[in-house]
Structures are given as C-alpha cells and as structure tokens.
Amino acid sequence: MSMVKERSGVQKIAPYQAARSLESVKREFGLDQIIKLAGNENRLGCSSRVAGILEEQKSQFSFYPDSNCTVLRERLSSIHNVEPDHLVFGNGSFELIALIAHAYLETGEEAVIPDPSFGWYRNVTLQMNGKPVMIPLKEFAIDTDEILRLISGQTKIIWICNPNNPTGTVLKEEQLRDFIKKVPDHILVVLDEAYIDFVEEPYFDTTELIKQHKNVILLRTFSKLYGLASFRIGYGIGDPELIEKINKVRSPLSVSFPAQKAAEVSLEDEDFKRLVLDNNRKSLDLYYSELKRLGLDYVRSNGNFILIRTGADGEAVEKAFLQNEIIIRNASEFGLDGWIRVSVGTFEENKKVIRVLESFTQERKRQEES
Ligand SMILES: *Cc1c(COP(=O)(O)O)cnc(C)c1O
Question: What is the pLDDT of residues 87-103, one digit of tens each?
C-alpha cells in the first residue's frame, strides 16, 4: 500500500468509468460496425472545411500553438459582440470547468449542483476539497427556487447546465434572469451552454447576462453543434476580471493549433450548422411521434439527445441495443432508473433506434402476458 496520501477530496472521487470502447463492444458481440449514440457527439461529422485547413496549415504543426488564440478570439469577439478580453479558451469545456473550480473554490466551500446534471461539476468540486450540494431536479428541470433557498454563507459556485444534460430541459428566459438577479454577487454562477444552439424555441442572447452581472460566466463548446469533439476546444465568456483569474490557472498551451484552425473555419460554415440543426429538429420530431405511438414516455429535448423512459432494467435495454450494434446511455448512472439517454443520430440511425425500442417493448409485453 502506498504511504503517499492524496488530497482528502480525491479520496471521495470514484474512479472514472470510461464509456465502453468501440473495440471491446465489437469483440464481445461479434459486430463489425457500431453506432455510438452515447456521448452526444455529432453524427453528421464536422464541416468539410476542417480537413482542408489542416492540410493547408500542416507546415505549422511543429510549432507551439498561439496561447492567446488571437484569430479565434477576434472572430468570437465580433460574433458575440463582446471585447476580446471577455473570452477564455480551454481544452474543451471540461478543462474550463476544472479551471473555474481551481481558481475559485476554497477548501470547505460549497458548490451547488442540480442533480442529475453533468457529472464533472461534482468531480471538480471534490478535487478542490469543496462540498457539493446536490439539488434534485423538479420535473426534469433545474429547480432555481430550491437553489436560492439552499444558498448558504459557504456557497461559492452554482453550476447551471442550460439546457441540462441529461434531461434536455431549458430554463425560461424570465426564470433565468430572475434567478441570476437574486443570487448574491459574491457567488459565481456558471452557465454551461454546451447545447444552447439546439434550444427548441428562439432563445434570448445570454451574453447580455455577463454584461449585467460580473459574477456570471458562460461556457460554450465546439464539441456538439460543430462536431469537433476530438479536437478539444471550448471557451468561456465573462467579465475580464473573472477571465483573468481563470487564465492564471490555465495551462498556457492547452488549446492546440489544429483545434484553433478547425474552430475558425467551422464558425464560418453556415451550411453545415443548418444541416445539423435541421437534422436535429427532424430527428426529435420523429422521436416524439414514434415514442407516442409506442406508448413510451420521454422528455422534450433542447439538446442533441433525448431521454426516454423504457420502464425496463437499464442494463437489459443497453444489451438489447448492443446486440443491434448501437451504444446508448443507461440513465441509471444519472439516478434515472428505467430511462435511457440516446444521442440524436442520422435520420436512418434514429429509425433503427426506434425499431429496437419497438421490438424490445413488444418482447417485454409478451413476456409479461405469458
Ligand atoms: C458535452 C458537454 C460539454 C462539452 O465538453 P467539451 O469538453 O467541450 O467537449 C460540456 N458540458 C456539458 C454539459 C456537456 O454535455
């Protein structure tokens, strides 16, 4: 046994459970191809301009990247209508979430986390020996009244995933504005907007919030709408004083040159964005009508995934999908027994998911009747 003792918070972190690798699933089930719908990745790939820019810029690959992300910073500053010093870049939002905790959370301070939501908020809180205060969702949505009620003298950060992963609910504009007004201004409110582009109804421009409130930071990612998950790039938008603190704990070269270039060209490809959003809308509509036909409950989604109630044991459902070459997420791991989370696929892939659900539920009915 090692005598070297880790930070006390690290003792409380369960070992990271990686999603099953495609390779291990293929071998176990003797399959040659697998459709992965477990990580909310973009099934339409990414902009075709990405391959071109990488080829064009390959002579730069032996140099360290621009730590400041100058070109991308300028583009996003004009897109969001904020000064360049309101932006911070990271190795995906994952890194930014950790950096926020590293820069702000003192030992023993509380971080308020809706539950279920993105699991990484709790992990980074424990890393800093902070105290996670988990607040159950109400009808699958973030319960802002309950959060306000549980703010204490120790509260330092409030994590709001909007739209929320894994439920897909989004806060109404009025509710969000009202909530932020009521949070004391020494508490940091992090709005993780990984799925903001997929919101069903037209949504307000949330960058207004950071102009009115110096304790709010928005997080955006290139992993979902833009399909650049493997490149690892995301950014935060907030008051320059917040941004400066996050930059202090950031590893200066965490955003690679290929990631910066891929992001720059992706921002300009309006056709690809439209294609992704159209496919998402049509796919969710297909799910809504087919799930209704099958008599299965679901939560209306503002993301690129959908939470579905099968009512069956999650592992059995997961296995039925694997036998049909599809990886989905058993929502038991989010505390939602009897539910699965399925990422939006291509239109054909979605139809296949529905066929699997249909035969699974029919088989289950037959078993119950006999
Ligand atoms: C997918 C996702 C992210 C994106 O993380 P990256 O590190 O940018 O890939 C962030 N937050 C939530 C809630 C997500 O679901």
Answer: 999 999 999 999 999 99
Please tell me the residue having the least CA distance from ligand 1 atom 2. Answer: 194
168 φψ region: left (φ > 0), alpha (ψ -120 to 50), beta (else) = left
The confidence score (pLDDT) of residue 19 equals: 63
Residue nearest to atom 11 of ligand 1 (CA): 194
Give me the chain's average pLDDT, please.
96
Is the CB of 234 within 6 Å of ligand 1? yes
C-alpha 87 to ligand 1 mean position (Å): 17
Q: Which two tokens stand for residue 174?
A: 């009025």
Residue type, 148: L
CA–CA separation, 357 and 337 (whole Å): 16
Tell me: the pLDDT tens digits for 98-130? 999 999 999 999 999 999 999 999 999 999 999
| Closest to 344 measured CA to CA, from 191, 202, 197, 192 | 197
- For residue 165 and ligand 1, the question of a CB distance below 6 A is answered with yes
Beta strand 234-238 with 87-90 is antiparallel
**What pLDDT, in 10s, does the model give residues 338-364?**
999 999 999 999 999 999 999 999 998
Q: How far is CA 119 from CA 116, 137, 343, in A?
A: 8, 14, 17
Centroid of ligand 1 to alpha carbon of 273 (angstroms): 18
Paired with 161 in beta bridges are 192
Tens of pLDDT, residues 17-54: 666 677 888 888 888 889 999 999 999 999 999 999 99
State in Å: Cα 93 to ligand 1 middle.
Answer: 5
**Residue 221 beta carbon below 6 angstroms from any ligand 1 atom:** yes
Q: Is the CB of 40 under 6 A from ligand 1?
A: yes
Record the pTM: 0.96
Q: Measure the CA–CA gap between 52 and 14, rounded to whole angstroms.
A: 41
What does the pLDDT read at residue 18? 62
Distance CA 130, CA 106 (A): 7
Produce one character per residue of 30-66: b if its CB has 16 or more CB atoms within 10 Å, e if not.
Answer: eeeebbbbbebbbbbebbebbeebbeeeeeeeeeebb
In this structure, the strands spanning 339-343 and 329-330 are antiparallel
